[in-house]
Amino acid sequence: MSVVSGKVSKTLDENIQILDDLYTDCHDVVSRKFPVGQERPVWVYLTYIDMMNDRFAIEITVVAPLLRFGARNSFKENYKDVFDLFKDSGIDTADFKELDDFDEIITMINAGESILFVEGYSKAIMIASRGFPNRGVNNAEAEVVVHGSREAFNEVIRFNTALIRRRIRDPNLKVKHSRVGRRSETDVALMYIKDLVRPEILNEVEKRLTNIDIDGILDSGYIEQFVEDSWLSPFPQVQMTERPDTAAAAILEGRVVIIVDNSPFSLIVPVTLNSFLQAAEDYYNRWHIVSIVRAIRYVAAFFAVALPGFYLSAAVYHPSMIPLLLTLKMSVSRQPVPFPAVLEFFLMDAAFELLREAGIRMPRAAGGALGVVGGLIIGQSAVQAGLVSPIVVIIVALAGVSNFAIPNVSLIAGFRIAKYLVLLLSAAFGLLGFWAGILILLIHMAGLKSFGIPYLFPYTSAELNDYSDTKDSFFRMPLFTLKKRPFYSNPNNLTRMK
């Protein structure tokens, strides 16, 4: 948001007054006015925000060199070239820029850069000095892998772009910066490979970012909600990741990665349902094991959505589908339960969700113990009290555990919501309602798109890429067979292996 408009004045005191008025009661703003030169010295003014930059770097690259330069030179003859002399010989850093617009200067100060004004010149020098407090490069926590890199993004955008640059040393890898948020002016970077990305997808991403008009962007989750295609859908249409290797792999596939300052999670677009069921280590292990694990994930995803509804429809409306001995055991276990089966499920599922949320919010050491012990105690107590039957506890636990086999947290949330649709329809109409619920979800996902890419690709429209994408879907074929990039990459550059 523009606060000050206009050009820098040649009079140093006027510039200082503008900054003093703007930063009134901002005690974290550090400013210093000092002379450079022995005879007839030139006055300069340095300002920055404390702890948003590297103070030590400012001292050794700006202040100390200027004072040494002034001690060796006198400016009693001519002021004409002093500004250029300071840039070329008085600052020991290559990363600086001339600015003459106060609006841009204020933005740079708030972003953590240092600004140097020089008496007699209607421009200033911006010295790159950002040095925010940060956590460094920590281990990934939300996307844990057994085999692969342990590095994770942190909250500093430049760290995150560097982690990707480290993995892709291609001059065609572009990093395009913009600012989003009228007041926060949050730095957002688009990373992509120029000759791999589809131009129409890149243009659409830039357009949606430009259309965001809000006071502040505090996390990448804000961006996700503004750029997704269908806000009514419970299923994510933007992939969120904390892993640099996952982001780098997506860029090599022709996708666009959105990195947001102050957020340890980056966004990947476009995405498909298949993308959410893949993990980073799928490409680090041999294809036999990965194919089995992926099949387990798909089965787990189906169980997470369908298992409670299927049991309810079979037990209440179609008990003849269940073996006689199991039906007798289930009827005996349900005799002391005073609630209908659907209410049993909602009671037990509510307890399971409460334990999940409590485990997440509690300290890590206590959270794991709460989830295991709390589940055992509540489940056993509920059965003994006759509030739920043992089979319901087992079904709810199996559906809950199936959620944890899905590698993406956003997709888990979508499946949790979809589960209730199937459960309610099954409770109302039996197997007919169960299959109607599954069909509604499939129709809904078939109609979803992520930046023009069908959500169920490659299970639909696979012929658009000669069925090449099916080799990396439900099963993963050997790496040497994956010769083509996915369909969402540039159609003029689909070959990735020869």
Task: Walk me through the structure.
- It is a single chain.
- With 498 residues, this protein is an alpha+beta fold.
- Helices cover 45% and strands 12% of the residues.
- It is built from 16 helices and 12 strands.
- The chain has helices at residues 12-22, 55-72, 82-89, 102-110, 157-165, 199-210, 220-227, 244-252, 273-276, 287-317, 324-334, 341-361, 364-384, 390-404, 409-429, 431-447; strands at 29-36, 42-49, 96-99, 114-118, 124-127, 173-180, 186-193, 239-241, 256-260, 266-269, 449-450, 453-454.
- The strands form 3 sheets. The chain has a 5-stranded antiparallel beta sheet, sandwiched between helices. Strands 6-7-9-10-8 form a 5-stranded antiparallel beta sheet, sandwiched between helices. The chain has a two-stranded antiparallel ribbon with strand order 11-12.
- A hairpin with a 2-residue loop joins strand 11 (449-450) and strand 12.
In the predicted model, the low-confidence regions spanning at least 5 consecutive residues are none
- Major sheet: 5 strands, antiparallel
Q: What structural class is derived from the secondary structure elements?
A: alpha+beta
- Work out the strand percent: 5-15%
The separation of the N and C termini measures 50 Å
Q: How much helicity do the residues have?
A: 40-55%
Mean pLDDT: 86
Strand order, sheet with most strands: 1-2-4-5-3
Radius of gyration: 30 Å
Summarize the helix and strand pattern as letters.
Answer: HEEHHEHEEHEEHHEHEEHHHHHHHHEE
Count all strands and give the number: 12
Q: Any idea what the shape is? A: elongated
- Total helix count? 16
